[in-house]
Design brief:
The chain is α/β, with parallel strands linked by helices. Strands 3-2-1-4-5-6-10 form a seven-stranded parallel beta sheet, with helices on both faces. It has a three-stranded mixed beta sheet with strand order 7-8-12. α1 links the parallel β1 and β2. The radius of gyration is 19 Å and the shape is globular.
Length: 289
């Protein structure tokens, strides 16, 4: 009998990629979603869909029934209470119900900047509290502290211009979601990946500015780059009530001040290292655009 894995957060790019990889690797993949029909249109009929939410315990019990594992990919913000409600408390609910339903493995997407020294940032605080809730649940877990995903680079292209928000001077080991999804799938398969916190990096380090320039050069060669102060995007986000821009602005404030932490060697050795470079990924995008 095939093992069933529940994926929470499939509307986000990494969550969707993980769901598709798990299905490819032979798992029965169940999706927790507020809108099953919309998710079915997006993903197709090869998946199971359960209507529910992370703050609805009964729907979590239904979704987790008979599951071997659960993958959590939540996204909160822009306010501190939003991060706390979704990232922290939502994850805690899933972990608690997972323990009740005898789930055997739990994998959670954290972030490479999540550490105690950065606890003062709401995004980091919520993820640290989520990680702690997972550990306390008693369910064998793998926490993936991943760096920036290449697939988010198109978000910085708007109105035929590329935008660098704030002073993003730290180098980032950009990660392709397909490489990441394969690592997640392997972690579900390997007992030795249980109860570990992995740092997940791509093979090359580029600053945000360098990465956006390379993406534009290959995929959108006519696009020019603009540099925008964070106070301006914050103002625009508030005036236009653009939640996505507000979330991006809050994260850019954080990424200005902190850099990646930890070391990827353990994850690379056990789960297989990410090999996709930004140039390789960008050339694939040329065929899509």
């Amino acid at each position: 009998m095939k093992q069933t894995i529940l994926v929470v957060g499939v509307t986000d790019i990494p969550g969707e990629s993980v769901a598709r990889q798990l299905h490819k690797d032979g798992y029965v993949v169940r999706i927790l979603t507020r809108d099953p029909e919309e998710s079915r249109i997006k993903l197709g009929d090869a998946f199971q869909f359960v209507k529910g939410d992370v703050d609805d315990i009964l729907s979590l019990e239904k979704a987790l029934y008979g599951c071997f594992g659960v993958y959590i990919n939540l996204r909160g913000g822009p306010k501190a209470e939003d991060f706390d409600k979704i990232e922290h408390k939502g994850t805690a609910n899933i972990a608690k119900v997972s323990a009740m339903m005898n789930v055997q493995r739990l994998i959670y997407l954290s972030d490479a900047i999540v550490s105690e020294e950065n606890f003062g940032f709401p995004f980091v605080k919520a993820k640290l509290q989520a990680e702690e809730a997972i550990r306390k649940s008693g369910v064998p877990y793998s926490i993936f502290c991943a760096t920036h995903f290449m697939e988010f680079l198109p978000l910085y292209i708007r109105w035929n211009r590329g935008y660098v928000i704030g002073n993003q001077s730290y180098p980032i080991h950009w990660l392709a979601v397909n490489d990441y999804a394969k690592m997640v799938s392997r972690a579900f398969q390997l007992p030795e990946a249980a109860n570990k916190r992995f740092f997940i990096y791509g093979p090359e380090a580029w600053t945000m500015s360098e990465a956006i320039k390379k993406y534009c050069l290959i995929v959108h060669p006519k696009v020019q780059i603009s540099y925008i102060p964070i106070w301006l995007t914050s103002l625009i986000g508030k005036i236009t009530f653009n939640t996505e821009l507000q979330v991006i602005t809050e994260l850019m404030k954080l990424f200005e001040k902190v850099c990646e932490g930890g070391y990827p060697e353990e994850a690379n050795e056990l789960l297989g290292a990410s090999t996709t470079t930004i140039e390789q990924w960008c050339k694939k995008q040329q065929k899509v655009v």
